[in-house]
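My current task is to audit a protein record that another person submitted. Thanks in advance; the entry in question is below:
***
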Amino acid sequence: MTETTGSTGTQALVDRHRLADVPLASPSAHQGLLEVFRRRYVLRLLVKREVQGRYEGSFLGFLWSYINPLSQFFIYWFFMGKILGASHGFENYPVHMFAGLIIVHFFTETFGAGTRSLVGNKGLIAKMSVPREMFPVATMLVSLWHVAPQILILIGVGIMEGWQPDMVGMMCAVVAVLIAMILGTALALLFSTANVFFRDFGSFVGIINNYVRFAVPMLYPFSLVRDNLPTWVTHLYLCDPVAIACLLFQRAFWVGTTADPTRSAAETLPDHLGLWTLGNLIAAVLILVVAQRVFQKFENKVPERL
């Protein structure tokens, strides 16, 4: 056990030295998200460093990737499903809720950790000549890495409930993760820059993430929104990319567990889901483009403010 811990510590020290030994150059020569992925070696080191840092000194280690989402699942299921009665008359409510929870957790982790990424890595920013977008991107990839065990849990529960996967559903799952990935990275770029100048933005992001959990059809079905709110409010609701991503993930993993998937999709999913998906995907990409431009405008001021 001691030998294993020592080797892990040695490897982490070697990785830090590799990061520190990246040759210095003008930061302006390495701007842009494309340059981030051209430097995949450094990006892998940052992701590995972040993952190891999360579990350093932990007895359970990677098992926390399963424990944390499962604990959230049971809390929401018990209080919302059982005590408040959200699951009454709703088929396979736990699967519906957990499908939305995975997307929400991925987005909020990307957004929150990405916002803190520049401040949290100020030592590396001062030493390394890499595109500074790399730090929010690395936190997004770490969050994406933790999505895998959550999906495995969801698939296992779905299979026990008679899940019937289909090609359209799998495409919906991929697009859902893509939307959350793009939007989370875009907002992380914007707010990480703002957080360098005003630390209040880190706390503000926490408030936004608390709102997100109730502003998407995770704890309740979309049909409640459609049936109880005016049409224009429903359309405004569907302009939220995270809400669409939740609906897509539920289409992929929840609809197939119901007794009549066609009827479940018609009753709990919005009309023209494909068009709403396309519109929100385009919107997420445009937000990412704007976020990249804003980040580039202020990134040269980041080191002096840190």
In short: Residues 1-6, 22-30 have pLDDT under 50 and may be disordered. Residues 2-305 form one domain. The first helix runs from residue 2 to 20.
